[in-house]
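Researcher: Here's a chain I'd like modeled. Treat it as a single chain, no partners, no ligands.
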Amino acid sequence: MLQKVSPESVGIASEKVLKFIQTLENNHLHTHSLLLVRGDKIFAEKYYAPFDENFKHRMYSVSKSFVSVAIGLLAEDGKLSLDDKFISYFPAYTVGMDDPWFEEMTIRDALTMCTCTPAMPDWFTSGTKDRTEIYFQGRATMIPGTRFQYDSPGSYMLGVIVENITGKPFLEVLKERFLNAIGFSADAYCVQCPGGHSFADSGVMCTARDLWRFARFVMNGGTWDGVRYMSEDYLREATAYQVANNRRDADHYGGYGYGYQIWKTPRDGFAFIGMGDQFAICDPATDTILILNSDNQGDPFSRSVLYQALYDGIIEEMGDPMPENAVALAALRESEKSGVLRALDRENSSPFAAELSGRTYRLGANNMQIPWFRFEIEGDHGVLHYENAQGVKELPFGFGHNVFGKFPQEGYADLVATVGEAGHRYDCAVSAEWQEEKKLHLCVQIIDKYFGNCHMVFHFKDDRVVVIMQKAAEAFLNEYQGTALGKWEK
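Model: Modeled as a single isolated chain. Structure tokens:
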């Protein structure tokens, strides 16, 4: 179904598309993949190596929109009603419950994030063997059906409802009903939670083109190539303004309302949105969809940059087909071929490097439990040697470019979130830059089933050092956050 065409053939100039891509890059967004599609015609597609069109990317909270469609299918089949009481699907966990707000909450309340928003233990750190039970260990704090308040655990619970009714992982339900028929990757999957259910609020793993297919199906109202796989009624409700989602953000691109696990956008559009900037932004008026996968965790400006560039530079400019500009089109296509994962690229040499290389610094007590470190630097490459609670580690990096490998920390989760696996390490990319003559900055990007980043800045003065590490990741890299002071061990 997908066809690669020139931007001009679908009504926008190649130079405007190239400017959009360059705006994201010039603002240092860590983009992994990007598709711009009008109808079924791709007019821009770019991957940033090592990412490619076959990479199964973590979609984070975009997963919630998949769950919403699964709920809609079960409602269509008569297996549930959106007005059913939520707790009626969890008798094993709610026997004897005496909480009127919990008892009042409906499936529709969960779909619109108007739940009773229970104050519950943090499942990431609780060590629970069953995430489902955590939801009912909290105290209801809101009258259900009154106010939008983001409730990711509630979205997970919707996935549990689907899986309890069908006896299958919710993504497999969607595959059987329509995903397989529309060309969705057969090997797409979802990360799991303790207890055996899918990480339905965050764990879908699929390609950028898979996400486009899903978004296109929803924008089609449940049809594909003229075949109806789902009633249009639910999808129209799901993508419509159902509730106000609090005040509008300062960038004027938030606060357009919320549907059923789907965000409203300008121009009466809608979007599936996930942490780190996973996006499927749909503009029905121009029949245009943007797919974006990234890891911009910790960047407070990335979404504002993206929305402004997309709406001002692309969507508002969509028009009728026009003659091709051969030069501009060639420049766009060349840009599409040259995508590489962003690395630190500031001044990448310092006269202090020769002095620093080989020195061992001893650190005082610190949250990272790192007693010492040493840099080995040669040309545009280096290695950070250090010790922490797990033992001696090595972290290779490149000045002005990424070095790809395995992050040295072991025992992080793999297919089951929060459940560590002995010896398991995440794929990563590490780059470095000299921010000042004696200020060295390392950027670690985790690029695995789980995404995250960590910035390590080493401030040197005479024979002393200040080390500051800051991470942006959901439930890992905690060992790399804090401040330490130390001294060169001469």
